[in-house]
Hints:
142 residues; mainly beta; 1 helix
Amino acid sequence: MYAIVEIAGQQFKVSKDLKVYVHRLANEEGSKVSFDKVYLVDDNGSITIGAPAIEGASVEAKVLQHLKGDKVIVFKKKRRKGYKKRNGHRQYLSQIVIEGITVGGAPKKAASKKVAVEATTEEAVAPKVKKAPKAKKEDTQE
Length: 142
């Protein structure tokens, strides 16, 4: 089972017991966090898609630690002008572990969309054939 969830402005594909590095969260280390913006849930082949998010679905996680990412060097240069600028930064991150994915209930709209898709595929397989117009009989008098 996996889910596509929005965490701190980014979308992640998560599953149970997965460790993920996300942008720094305001929660303390060891605290539990719940994310409600779940866009897709796959439960062993049964896919539920939200419009835009699935109502009643959530992802539970635990904040393991706050840390800084690797240093990123930003180097700017303009040739033949003597302009060189070297700068860098380290991104603030939080490491979380996914503890579980819960789905409150499947939306009814998804089932109706599935039926509509099946109907359109049947029409695509066997399209209606238009009959050619019949030729008109010409009256000939001799």
